[in-house]
Specification:
164 residues; alpha/beta; five-stranded parallel sheet; 6 helices
């Protein structure tokens, strides 16, 4: 799939009508999502034929991008049932087969590498300091191949030197 085609599909997705501030919900734009997943696939072979988990999936943008890029299987995880409903409807609209799991990422009892690649646009930690690092820590424990994560510029130093 070409980059512009991927971005076009992601641009058609439904987003939050009432984002929950306490969960730091905000949409992952189609421009950045398409480029992140396109890079993961075309530069590093981290998507097609891989098991991909979308941590804090929100409306499903990153997981749907992975599915469109021929991931073997996509697990989309979010604590918010309303987000999962939007993500599920978005996947259904594009006729994608994905699994949706309602759980706090910190409550997952996965042990060792479970998935090949984790993609995420985690809470930035503006409401709960360190929330982004909790997501990174969980991702590092379950990804056997790669973790792709978006972060706020003000947390860059903290994340750049993070070691799981």
């Amino acid at each position: 799939m070409k980059l512009k085609e991927l971005e076009g599909h992601l641009g058609s997705l439904d987003q939050f009508s009432n984002p929950k501030i306490e969960l730091e919900q905000y949409p992952t734009g189609p421009h950045i999502a398409s480029r992140m997943l396109f890079l993961a696939e075309n530069s590093y072979d981290d998507v097609s034929n891989k098991v991909v988990a979308d941590f804090g999936c929100g409306c499903g943008t990153l997981g749907i991008a992975a599915a469109l890029l021929s991931a073997e299987h996509v697990l989309s995880i979010d604590v918010d049932p309303e987000s999962l409903e939007i993500a599920s409807l978005n996947a259904e609209e594009l006729e994608l087969d994905m699994d949706f799991i309602q759980s706090n990422i910190m409550d997952l009892k996965w042990r060792g590498p479970i998935v090949d690649t984790v993609v995420m646009n985690p809470p930035f930690g503006t409401r709960k300091k360190g929330a982004d690092l909790e997501f990174l820590s969980a991702a590092m424990k379950v990804a056997s191949q790669a973790v792709y994560s978006l972060h706020k510029t003000s947390t860059r130093d903290r994340c750049r030197y993070y070691r799981g």
